[in-house]
Structures
1.
Amino acid sequence: MKHPFLERIARGPVICDGAMGTVLYAHGVSLEYCVEEVNLSNPKLVQEIHRDYMASGAEVVETNTYGANRFHMASHGLEDKVHRVNVRGVKIAREAREIAGLPVFVAGSIGPINRPLEPIGQITYAQAADAFREQAEALLEGGIDLFILETFSNLRELTEAVKVVKNLCGLPIVAQMSFTEDGSTVMGQSPEEIVGALSGLEVDVIGVNCNIGPQLTLDVLQQMMASRPDMIYSAQPNAGFPQMVEGRVVYMTGPDYFADFARSYVEMGVSLIGGCCGTTPDHIRAMARAVGERKTAEPIREAVRVVPKPESPREAAPAMRELSGLGHKLRGKFAISVEIDPPKGINPAKALAGAAMLKERGVDTINIADSPMARVRMGCLAMAYLIEKQVGMETIVHFTCRDRNLMGIQSELMGAHAAGIRNILALTGDPTRLGDYPGATDVFDVDSIGLIGILRRMNEGFDMVGNSIGQQTSFLIGCAANPAHENLGWELERFQRKVAAGAHFVMTQPLYEIETLDRFLEKVSDFDLPILLGILPLQSYRQAEFLHNEVPGIEIPKWARDRMRDAGESAQRAGIEMAQELLLEARDKVAGVYLMPSFGRYEVVAEVIQALEPES
């Protein structure tokens, strides 16, 4: 007989649930806590979350066991509880199903071990297989209906897990890989390679989950389905890219946007549709209603956000000192800066050529990002050194607290100063769990405010604990601000703390209308800090929708998105014109502009700044 899950999915699209960790986090469970252990310490909360997803229309709920393997549990001192956590996770989900009284399938969730495997790490694939076997046996004992193996970025690791499960039982297997924004896995495998390997193992459903949002997930699935249209496919994307709001990780992509993509997934033939990090019962409810397969109910209970109260701002710092060439420029002339991302490999040729071209077009400084979105790139300090020495342009280095402890931060800053780098934009940085190495370790000994304080102390001639560093540094210290933040009061309070810590200039997130800038300038008029206005010229309507819905910190007004839509094939021209219009409106209100080219199209931002040239 055919398994009931396979019979159901053959009849039409099936809605899966969304994130468990995100909702637990919203209920006050710390990001640093082992969320799988909540199966033991607060099973009622886990059960209520399962019931919320069922009420929202989910026909498949995943057990809270994603990281319940011996390696992950050992990092929390819980390796002796692997069996209990997995069995209890299944029982909680089954109890929720019994209470809900709905025909819901309970899927045993297994994730990667999230530790480096051979030959990079010390853990062998045989040891990983033993860990998967231990977890799978416990899930089977608990009574699951199927397996979902998810968020794997290493194809060989996933194939080992699939083989283990197949040797244990004949339950259906959903096997899902995680991709980067480039459309390949962290290990470099293409969607076609993934499909070829997994179809050869005769898994029942092949899919994409985590890391990327709805739009990029759709792109990857299109490639998968083109290679093997006879397979069954699944999609469980993240709710876009996350951002830090009031000290908490928040995903900005809303339920309505997910609903639109649910329709797109169904139209292209995807059979299992749900969500991953950042998605909630509201997202699943919207998707289920869009698909039209299930009636939905009201949530069991509302999630309660626990938000730490920010500290009171300190007194404003003295006005900016003229510390670098950029510092002099900001005090008198309109400064033009352009962002260049370091390469993902070891060849800096494209970035150097781009910087040289921008120098010829009148750009003053080059911004160097520090592995943005927690994706591995060439080091920002090395890239800045190459541009300053080989191109002869001053740089602004985006320096984050993510990858360096207090010793590393100060050591690298001293080295940067010795190499001639003077301009530093102090940033907290995106958590590594959100990038292409989710098993990597975050540091965050300090945040951006603490980093500004360290830079200020170095300018006074001391490290952060008061030891002399021999002489004063001359860093120009920048801070970031988001004038379009939905909680502008919180943003302004944090801005005041950055100023008090010692910031000399400000760089804004990308803006698209002058009214947003004017409101911000009115609020910060008491601070004598030069402001560089962020402008990201839009390339297409699709990009505008993606940035607005999936990228944290970017708000694109509806009129601007409509203008890009109406422009059709002339969308890139419309994007350039909008950027030029904003630039001219803001020219007399800010100290300069900070341009962000999309997809490395430096010629586009070069055209934008032509608007500043006097008419002949």
2.
Amino acid sequence: MPTASPVSLAVRSAAGGLILFAVALALPAALVGPVARGEETTADAEAMAHATGLSKAFRHAAEHASPSVVVVRSETKARKAPARGPDRRGGGGENPFKGTPFEDFFRDGVPEGFDFHGGGGGAGMPPRSGVGSGVIVDATGIVLTNNHVVEGADEVTVELPDGREFKATEIKTDPESDLAVVRLENAKDLPTAKLGDSDKLDIGDWVIAIGNPFELETTVSAGIISGKGRELGSIRRAKFLQTDAAINPGNSGGPLVNLAGEVIGINTAIASNSGGYQGIGFAIPINLAKWVSEQLIAKGAVERGYLGVSISPLDKETAGELGIGDKKGALVTEVMPGTPAADAGVQELDVITGFDDQAVDGPRSLQEVVERSGIGKQHKLAVLRDGKPLTLTVSVKPLPDKVSQRGGRGPRKLPSGDETYYSESFGIEVRAKDSVAEDAYEGFDGVLVDRVDPEGVAAEAGIGPGVLIRKVGRTPVTSVGDFTAALEKESSDEGVLLQVRTPRGNAVILLKKNG
């Protein structure tokens, strides 16, 4: 017997459901008698009134918001490849891939053995064009959109639903939140959107997304808020609203609107295996977008508050090792000297649970509240240290530019022969930090992981060669001897916390035998 296709199975199932439903409706009529015509008419009228009311609400929201939703077209000119020379990064050390999707893959410029030069001086990168959406937030011609819609563009053109077209005279971007504002040339009396309050949203609230998916201008799709506080790794400084309103390529930068016609989010990303809508979309909450755009308009850049700590999520096992009842909070993995946190007395392995009486449930929520806090003012910081609550006072400073650029390439080892220490119970071997030729960990003391047993405790915890172990528990290690003395006091059955550093930053790892 041939196997039915998923489509035919679905059709048969749906048909069966309709038959069963018809029988279920027929039985009550035979058993209890006919329903009064007046009662049936009243119920139908009430249902129709509810449906009509919802339809009118969607129509009202679309009519109020759509005139302020624009098409954003970006054009990027062709880029010539730099002249060939000993510096593969091009003239002046500039990476020829800078500003393109290939920058992360070729951080050192043109790979050895490759030649991107053709006749006439080199092909370089071809011209690019893109289409997104935006929303007018000021009648004098200020449009709010996504950074990725206009990033790197040489020319940006904005088209209104009424057919008017404007060129952008000024573009200010914040890649950290993926937001941008565009000022239009010779614009006045433009239709503007009303901005709502995204903090008042709840899961299940109706919303509509407006934009230009696949260049279909002023398209409206409806759905609900299906999640809040979502984190996307590619955008570090935003917690997203999740919606099942259809969002597709071209919707980026357009508004997510509530039934009052107020913008409560900026559509930004989708979760998709195909590149198109698959039921999950993400929008930047409008309260964050308002804060970012106000700073971009006033200062040209975003000034964020800064504590001076590296933080990581707190999992159940680490929380138990630190004597904390639950896992709510942000674990401090590093306190940088001379920073507000250092001045306030914050220590590594502290767990930050609150900031100015606002609960902190993880790294992103702490980052969010600190960044928007008053700079130069005193703030209360609630921490747990060794399981005991403590309140500190911290004065937040502006985030330095260099903080987000910290990191480096992994260490490259010299020929073997240096002193090492091997722990069979933890399945790890370390060597001295000075056994690297390129020090990716300048300014940090510790020992380097040389190898791990593939099935050992360290491997299970995710530790690999090249990781710098800075502390065993709270004990700093500056040599193989320090590490040996500290680790031999610990048991893999009871577990031990290691404070480590990788090229991505600091982390806390629990080494404990499973079972």
3.
Amino acid sequence: MTRTLLIGIDGASPTWLARWMAEGKLPELARLRDGGCLGPLRSTPNMMSPSAWTSITTGVGPGRHGVFGFFDRLPGSYRFRPSDARARAADPWWVIASRAGLRTAVLNVPCTWPADAVNGLQVAGWLTPSARAPGFTCPPELAGELAVRFGDYPLHSDVQRLVATGRLAATRDRILRSLHRKAEIARHLLARERWDLMAVVFADTDAAQHYLWHLTDPAHPAHGAGARATVGDVVLAAYQEIDRAIPALLDAARPDVVLVVSDHGVGVEHRGHLFLPGVLDALGWQVRKRSRLRGIAQAAGRLLPAGVKHRLAARTGRDIAGSMLVGDVTWARTRAFTIAHGGRTDIALNVRGREPEGALDAEDVADAVAELCGLLADCVDPATGVPVLEDIARRGDVYAGPYVALAPDLLMRWREDLPPLAGLRCGDITVTHAEGDQLHTGGHRGDGVLLAAGDGVNRGGTVAGARVEDIAPTLLHLAGLPVPRYCDGRVVEGIFREAPEVRFDDAATLRGGPGGGDAADPRVTERLRGLGYL
């Protein structure tokens, strides 16, 4: 058995990680790379953290584990359920390892509340309602112990209010404090005993990249803003905080092999998804009720400063600049509608007999999809006339498994080289009204990172073709356990010096249908809103 430590860095890009290592800015990660191998790790089709982290932990894609976004639509309704650990239809690797008698320590992995009953310990990730909520830790008494020793647990550095009001130095300090505290707690817990399989995830890089990517990337138009001279490169500072923590984590964990992974990459936020609801409105596929309230909301979305809009949202409990499911829809006249959350907007069809007030006959779906995709394919940047969409994917073409129906029907694949858009032009119509969070300067990209180092690892090699679904099978193989045959992923053979002899478990089965509550805890909803995800 190979004792393995997984270090997760949310949103880490292989390109930027390689650049910073080459420049000597991340010496500890570079040391790991020099003793191992580095390459891209392909994310799930929608590049969203809940789907990708759940695929990392279970070895199956969203169509089999049932988690696509922070909230997923309940079949046959216009309602959503939160995507926490109860919604997961496949066991994560630490549950499988615990059943086999191995000792596991799992810290801060997203979408893991409530914590599983493990043979070891677990601290749930940042979608936990609070550090005092039942299910935050396993064993339950660990939560109280951490509170006494370390004080309040930093579930996530919620920084949107700080960014919206221009307090970037306070934003930087909050992110770095959260990372430092998590590393401190991880050192303490990993040193308790010689664990067999371990994981610690740092998710605060996600907030840094979403809100402050313009301070890092020269390709962003706002890169030369004066804020960079005042607060520096906050994203790089966050990575350097993690980098400094690595020697102590390794000393505490004493692993044979280290895997560094991320759920997706990062690049300039193109903002195209913010204009998609307006395009669907203008094309007549999505019909909204005419109301004075909606007119006021639209005007506020156009005219009010971001900080004012956020304060109104916090006070009223309603995001006036946009929401997950577009509001005030006349369903009987709507053939397709937008679902916006997690930094992206996709499209669901309103099918008669499938949705409560469907307007599209089932036999007309294929023709409707072809027509709508043809219209949207003409979307361009109004400023340059450059096409903005790489592709529009049908859910059945990119997902497989029993829960594909939980996904939106059409997934928008935007070009990754787009600048921040000020609108969309589609044929004769131009939409400039943005619905949703406009503070993001960094957005998700399809390639995360996989770095491997340690005993038996292919030193100096380049990892190619790895996917997020491959991580759980690789961890189970390293632990000397068979890989469930149902896994979509495979053991990443490229990280090993010698071809691994993989064993399979033909008796293992998926857990059954996704569960979860019908309503989100308001503390989780507010945290997601604070990240710009609602």
4.
Amino acid sequence: MKKIFLIITFLIIFLSGCQKEDNLSFVYPSKEIEGLDISHAYYSYSMQFFTDIYQGLTEVNSEGNVVYGLATDISVSSDGLTYTIKLREDAYWYDYQGNTKGHVTASDFVFSWRRTLEVNSEYSYIFSIIENGSEIIAKEKEVDQLGIEAIDDYTLEIRLDHPAQYFESLLAFPLFYPQPESAYLKYQYDYATSNQYMYYNGPFYPSSYDKSYEIVLDKAPLYYDQEHVDLNQIIYKVSNDLEMNYQGYQAGEYDYTTIQNPNYYEANKDNSELHDHLTGYIYSLYLNTSEDSIFNNKDLRLAMAYGLNRTIINDSVYAGMNLEVNYLVPDDFVGDFYGVEYRDYADDDYILYDKKKADYHFDKYMDQMGYESRNQIEISFLISDNELSINVAQVIEAFYKQEYGINIDIVIKPHNIFVEDKRIGNFDMVLSSWGADYLDPETYLSQWESEAIDYINISRYINPEFDEIYKQASQEQDIEKRFEMFAQLEKIVLEDAVVIPIYQENIPYLVNYKYVMPEDLVMIISHKYIHLK
């Protein structure tokens, strides 16, 4: 298995000696790009897009090491709570025409972080590590009490709630990027609603912006690291029509596209333009454990967990392209960063497919409910309206019906409504995924903390034992002890059958041969963690 690493850029960093090209055209596999507003970003492809047009304090390179972005020096106090960060003085904001709009300063970070909390971002919870962050999220304190301060134009001070060895990798996540307060003051309600109402500080800026059709990014003339940006232009073709995307690539319309049809994957097995990306996304069935949900019953959850044959799904929908998993944190994830790998401390023998055990727990549930037939078990199954989710859901629905006789009602929602219904718990079962936002197992296991309900705890799971161990683990600085506690948490969640992992996603892609670079090229298809071929 190859190394997983944190995404820092998207198809822009080329090694010396590679062939220079003027532009790159590729398909953005979505109905539309979510937008330009960092504070309101949630969808993974938006994060990917942001790495082209914005830049933060740090990045995580292909070796899993934290490197500076806009930061030039980071010093940490002896207690691990205060970070003093010196910023580059040659980083600029520019508009959609490439005109310079002033320097990026420390106050832009203060404005950005405060604004994200003020607008109640879906990602607000990620700021709980900052001093007073949890209290601000809980509306107990004001945003100006957040532990971030501009000491001067190019010196930023950040104070943490507790020490965190992974914090510098967390700073690479787009929600911690700066935002131009000058643009906000100028455009007010129009701020970031279109390319002309926003400023940018990344290697590219959007000169043309139709988020449901095509976006053109031009090379930023004053980007400080010009020598590593060989492209003059990137063209995003926005389309979630998988068939059309593949045919467009074959016809030479695009230089890059993902392959999600297993037939095309098989057809290109001997094609040198085909590459595999085993991402850090774990796709799972999340079960709603709230009191008014059918899955408030543990026996029914265990029946579903033991009853799932992952191979049927992987083979039927993906021709075996994905990696079947029964755990929550990927392997080969943080070894390069910490020097030890998390899965060496965690079990890998959690709940696996076992029809006898599934039947046993279905029967126990039937007795508790006084049901005479399994046809009386009816489950609402929420999914997003994309082709692959629909295909997976149909296989799952048919499998449970055939093997156990239960009824699963597939509820298909447009993606924006799907995200909101998932957040508020408007489902019994939902097909969803989670990937890493920073280099620590906590980024996966934080999903089941009770305080994260209404944010990322979509199972609405409440377990005081989990909460207590999680609090201890999140503040533990001894890595081995930390990993051991996280392993306990993973075991609690999986044995309670709150979530049923299915597979770790592989996203094969085709790239025009002129862009096939050496293996250590940072070539990204997701803002999360991936494997390079």
